[in-house]
Amino acid sequence: MAELRRDPITGRWVIVGNDKEIRPEDFEVESHEKGKGICPFCPGNEAMTPPEIIAHREGQTAPNTPGWLTRVVPNKFPALQIEGSLNKRGIGVYDLSNGIGAHEVIIENPDHNREIADLYDHEVERIVWCYRNRSIDLRGDKRFKYILIFKNYGKSAGASLEHPHSQLIALPVIPKRVQEELRGSQRYFEYRERCVFCDMVKQELQDGKRIVAENKHFVAFTPFVSCFPFEFWIIPKEHESDFSYLQREEAVSFASILREMLKRVKVILRDPSFNFIIHTSPLEEMEKEDYHWHLEFMPKLTRLAGFEWGTGFYINPMRPSLAARYLREAKI
Amino acid sequence: MAELRRDPITGRWVIVGNDKEIRPEDFEVESHEKGKGICPFCPGNEAMTPPEIIAHREGQTAPNTPGWLTRVVPNKFPALQIEGSLNKRGIGVYDLSNGIGAHEVIIENPDHNREIADLYDHEVERIVWCYRNRSIDLRGDKRFKYILIFKNYGKSAGASLEHPHSQLIALPVIPKRVQEELRGSQRYFEYRERCVFCDMVKQELQDGKRIVAENKHFVAFTPFVSCFPFEFWIIPKEHESDFSYLQREEAVSFASILREMLKRVKVILRDPSFNFIIHTSPLEEMEKEDYHWHLEFMPKLTRLAGFEWGTGFYINPMRPSLAARYLREAKI
Description:
The structure is a homodimer of 332-residue chains. In chain A, strand 10 and strand 11 form a beta hairpin. In chain A, the strands form three sheets. Chain A has a ten-stranded antiparallel beta sheet, with helices on both faces. A three-stranded mixed beta sheet of chain A has the order 1-2-15. Chain A is built from six helices and 15 strands. Chain A is 26% helix and 23% strand. The first copy, chain A, has a single domain, classed as HIT family, subunit A, CATH 3.30.428. By secondary structure, chain A is of the alpha+beta class. Chains A and B meet through strand 1, strand 2, strand 6, strand 8 and helix 2 of A and strand 1, strand 2, strand 6, strand 8 and helix 2 of B.
C-alpha cells in the first residue's frame, strides 16, 4: 500500500508509492542534442553578453575577452531590474512593488560540452566559490532580502541556453517555499530547541538506507518525503544556516559531493534534465540556530505538473530508499 | 518594468512582466492527436474499468453496459486505497500514515472526441451535478478530510487517457495549497471581518479589466497575481464556502460559464493542455464565513517547471489584464 508521508519542516503531505517494479530505465528523458547556432557564452563571443561582473581568469587576460575559467554576467533578459526603488504600494486588496532585483548568470566553464558531472573536482570548486563570492557581494545592497542560486539543465527544466551555466537572483522578498521552511523549522525549534535539519541528518545517517554519498563535511540523501523520484539533498553535517559563510575547505568538500551526485544521476538516469536550488537563510539574519542551508536537486522525470502545482499535493511512485539504492549502486 | 505582485490570500509573490508583445500564438501547444488503441472509457468497453459507482443513464439500461451519459468508476490505478485504516504513526522526526483515500474517475460523456468546450450547456451541467453528488456521497466517510475535484487535459498536463474525464480524490489530509488559502483568508477575516475572496470579486467587478465572463451566479477573471499566462478563476459572486452546497440553478450557471471559458481558451490558444481544480472548504467545516469556493484553471503553456516548484516563486511574462482582453475578444 502507498504511504502518506509528512514533511517535518513544511508540513507537506506526499503520497509515496511502493512500486518495487520501477527502474531508472522506465523514465523517459529528453535528449540534449546541441544546436548549431552561435553560443553567446562560448569564449570569443564575450561581446554577446552584457559586460562581465567578475571572472576567474588565467594570467593577465582583459575583461570580456577569452581566457576566463568562470565568468559572471548580468542576465541579458532579466526577470528583475537592478536600477530603481521598490516603491511598495497597494491597489485595494492587492499589494505590489516595482520589479527590483539582480539576475546574474554564472557561466560555469569555457567548454560548451562539459557539465558539472564531467568536470574535475577543482573545477567545480571554482563554480561553488563563485556562488559564494557573488552571494557575499550582493549582501551589501540593502534592498535585497534573499539570494537564490539555482541551475536549470535541459529545456524541460527551463534552460534556454545549452552552455553550462547557473543563475543567481537577488530578491527584495523571501520566496514562499523558503518562507515555509523558515517557519516550519522555527516551530520545531521552539518546541524542541533543536534544529530540525540537524535531527533529520542524524536520523538519516543512523538509518542509512536513504544515504547515497558522504564526505568530511557533507551528506547526500534522498529525503523520506521526496516529492519526485530521485530527488536528493546535499546538506552540511554540522549546523550552518548560511551558504555564504562557506569556508574554503568546506567548498572543496561540497564541490566534490555535488560532482559525484550529478555523475551518479547522469549514469543511472541517462542524463536527465534537472533543477537544483540552494536554500539558505535570508540576508537580514545572522547565524540562525533553527535553519540549515542545503541544496535540493529535482530531476525532470515525471509529467504530473498542473495537479501538483494547484494543490501542493505530490504523488511520488517510488520509495526514496529505492532511489537511493540505485544511486548508490551507480557505476561511476 | 516588471512588477512584484503579492497574492492577498496566500502571500505568494509573483513577478509579473509587462511584455506587450506577447500574443496567444507565441505559445507552443502540444497536439492532441488521438491514438488508435481501444479506449476503456468508450461505450461497449465498460468491462475494462472497475464496476461503476454511479452513472447517469437514459432509460432502463443496466449498470456497466452502454446507455450512460456520465459514468463514475474507481480509478483502476488509484493513488490511494479505499479499504483500511489510516494508522497514523511516527518514525523519529517523520510522520506517516497508510495511503487511504478514494480515487474516482468521472467519464464526462460517451463521445471520445467531445471535450467540455464542445458540449451543450445541459451536458456540462450533468458533469457538474455529478461532481456535486460524488462530493456529497463521500462526505459520509469520516476518514476523509478533503475532497478534490480536478481535470487533467493533455499529456503534458498529466492525462494518461484521451477520453474526456475528470477525477476526484478524497484525502485523509488537507492539501498544502488549500491549507494556505484557508489560513490566509482566515487571517484576512480576523483583521477585517470580511471574506477576502468577496472583496476580490467586488474589486475585480468594479475595475473590470481582468473580467472575462459573467452570468447570474458566477464571474470568471484572470487573477491580479496569476502565476501563469491565461490562468483564470471561476467564482460564485455571492459568498459560498462549499462546492457541494451548489443548488440546481447555480449548477446551470456554473456549467455555462465553465463551458464558455474553456471554449474561449480553446479558440484563442489552439486547444492547449490544461488543468483545473476546484478549491472548496474541508469536509469537517460547515458554512465558513472566511472561505469561498472557486475553480482555478491553468493552461500548460510555459516550461518553467522546476525552479518554480523548488521556490514557490513564479515569473509570469504576461499581464493578466492582457490575457483577459484576449480571452474576452475570442470569437466563440
